[in-house]
Amino acid sequence: MAQFTEEDKIMRRVEQRFNKGVVKYRLIEYGDKILVGLSGGKDSLALLELLAKRSRILKPRFTVMAVHIGMTNIPYQSDLEYLKNYAEGLGVPFVYFETSFDLSTDTRKSPCFLCSWNRRKALFTVAKEHGCTKIALGHHMDDILETLLMNITFQGAFGTMPPRLVMRKFDMTIIRPMCLVHESDLSDMARVRGYRRQIKNCPYESQSNRSDMKEVLKSLEKLNPEARYSLWGSMTNIQEDLLPDKID
User: Fold this and answer.
1) Cα(74)–Cα(101) distance, rounded to whole angstroms?
2) Least confident of 41-50, 65-74, 175-184
3) What pairs with residue 122 in β-bridges?
């Protein structure tokens, strides 16, 4: 009987959830050219590896390329040589693109929002320049559920980051192929794969509520070990008859 190593078990678990998300939400189509935003964090490194591997199967045929967006006014130190060698070692072309943002242009928005928005605009720019049909982001199930909880708590809205989002204004589709993968499994994958950590010194990181919401999700799972699946299911099980009527 074959003996599976710890790495084998971790990768099998990650790949099963990854492939399930791709198929269930129809994220990849024949002829797609997918741009991966490679930040250098464990999630984007894992996403690139998983997509590169899947691109080698027979159907549907698609290609992958990677881009690292450098935000020149944020002291995030990226090892560009490592990222380039990592991507090309997977058979994926690598592009580096620099941009920045000015806080004084919109003082109503948080630095995190402005940084994220400008990174997203840069991704669209690179995708268009290289003829990509889709942009793949490294958000996992925990990210999506935390965003759901944040929107309910701070925005009074029931919404999150969908696995597939068609941006008609930009003629581009955003996909999140790791939507069903747990962050804990990606941490294990990063450990056994030996991903190199980037140096992150964002001066605005403490202003984010996401770390607090991670603790909320953990607390819910202490109350109910299946809480994440209940939360996920709630997004497609809206019982409108049991909700207040919308008052204009």
Assistant:
1) 9
2) 65-74
3) none
Q: Which residues neighbour 43 within 8 Å (Cβ) at sequence distance 6 or greater?
A: 138, 139, 140, 143, 178, 183, 186
- Written as one letter, the residue type at 215 is E
For the entire predicted model, the pTM comes to 0.91
Q: Are 85 and 204 in contact (CB under 8 A)?
A: no
pLDDT in tens, 128-151: 999 999 999 999 999 999 999 999
Q: Which pair of structure tokens corresponds to residue 233? A: 């299911």
Write out the two tokens for 121: 């605009």
Which residue's entry shows tokens 């400008």? 118
Handedness of CA 174, 123, 186, 205 (dihedral sign): negative
d(CA 175, CA 26): 10
